[in-house]
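Researcher: Let's walk through a ligand-bound prediction step by step. First, I give you the protein sequence. Second, the SMILES string for flavin-adenine dinucleotide. Third, you return the three-dimensional complex as structure tokens. Ready?
Model: Ready.
Researcher: Here are steps one and two:
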Amino acid sequence: MSDHGHEPLLGTFTRERARSGAGTALTRSAVALARRHDTLDYDALPPSLARKAIEPGDRAYDDVRHTYTRTGSPALVIQAENADDVAAALAYARGQHAEIAVRSGGHGISGRSTNNGGVVIDLSRMNAVQVLDRAAGRIRVEPGARWGHVARALAPYGLAMSSGDYGDVGVGGLATAGGLGYLARRHGLTIDHVTAAEIVVADGRRLRVDAEHHADLFWAIRGAGGNFGVVTAFELDAYELGDVAYATITVDATGTAGFLVEWARLVERAPREITSFLSLFPARRGAPVTARITLVYAGDDVEAAQSALSPFLGAGPVLHQQAQLVPYHLIVTPPENRHQGHGLENTRSGLLEHLTPEAAGVIEEMMRSGDIPIVQFRSMGGAVHDVPADVMAWPHRTQQFSVLAAATPSRVPALNASWARLYPHLNGMYLSFETDTHPDRLLDAFPEPVLTRLRALKAEWDPDDVFNRNFNITPAGAEETPAGAEETAAGAEEAAVPAGGGR
Ligand SMILES: Cc1cc2nc3c(=O)[nH]c(=O)nc-3n(C[C@H](O)[C@H](O)[C@H](O)COP(=O)(O)OP(=O)(O)OC[C@H]3O[C@@H](n4cnc5c(N)ncnc54)[C@H](O)[C@@H]3O)c2cc1C
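Model: Step three, the predicted complex:
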């Protein structure tokens, strides 16, 4: 029985007027109406949103219910087209006391951008990329754009903006949390380039924030943005970039610890034009432990690139290698696929000052165990360290590497046991790569005094804790309510990792 009192009329073609959005002519079949959730008053949806709302009975629902990483069954997905829509959707969802998920690109790992039975504010239609001032490199980007599309749109201007390694990731989630990309050592994090943002805050106000206007909020949204509102546009200073040298080297990493230490030594000594990512895969089916080293040289001087890249051929026995000079946007071209919630359910994330032999030894044990299908490193020295630690809510400005390890659900206890051994070697955490959103982890991402300042600002800007789905920072003075933590992968097993910001 639906909340409108209809029996599902399977097999009939009877259509009746759905009153979603009073006065609109939108109709839904009785079958579609029967799939509405009892928890939501669909008739209370403002008329301006009626045609932008997708319900469980709608044909488009299967295209929008899941994200890249998670499956979901929201009661309503509202596809906002502008900031007014965002404010209206927020007011509606709050009025319904519905769980709210904010979705830009749907690639959240720590952040949950779908839910079960709640409202999703989907920003994918707000995806414009504008060059405001070519000479100054000023660009304006809406949150629903994908980074691959941003790169493609900037290329004709000779501009670029570092994001991550995967062009399908959305602007909104990444540009509010960090952005550790292929140009990080040369140009820093994505958030280091955010100069202003337009945001809808919990009470519905639309604000422009920058260094002069609501400077505290501007500080908070560069690192902890998911806790403070819905960013509807970012202004960034992009930089000039021609082609880049892009190389991949596959290495036999049987002597894992020694190999990792050598790779890390090469990265730390490399010119800051070099940024390197590394993925480590365990031995299987007769193949050894292998490492895939990705290297980007941010420049088109072939000789300089060759001399910066070639030392990495000595990191271990090379199984395969390739290098090419390519436009940056071609290395972050997004695939066109529907999100079906297929990956990265359980990851642990940490930061390393240096990749020491001791830490590398723990990683080697992880590889030997067969429990961990992938460990990934991203280099983050160079320009990432140029920014003072207190300028924004991303204080990690001394660490050289980010590391993540992933496991399937059945292997989470093993992952946690390994991670507990690695933990003493870590100093901090990049929240975007962590699925354990238990409050204990907050101090790793936001070591004091950052967390206290964030909680005070949360009390000011989101006292009712509306935005609680991405490492929930509870307002100062409120009870600790670990919203979102109930979905953590390993429950009590998570306690295997101690709290408190690493070493
Ligand atoms: C395959 C893959 C590769 C990745 N590679 C990298 C990488 O190389 N470097 C890196 O730094 N990160 C990387 N990430 C992590 C990525 O940055 C985060 O998961 C990011 O949150 C994804 O952004 P999104 O808009 O796609 O996320 P969504 O799933 O849409 O949102 C995730 C969360 O971000 C918040 N959020 C989203 N939009 C807004 C908004 N407009 N305003 C305020 N808050 C918002 C919400 O809390 C939301 O729950 C990768 C993730 C994946 C899945």
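Researcher: And what stands out?
Model: Confidence is low (pLDDT under 50) at residues 1-25, 486-503. The longest strand covers residues 243-252.
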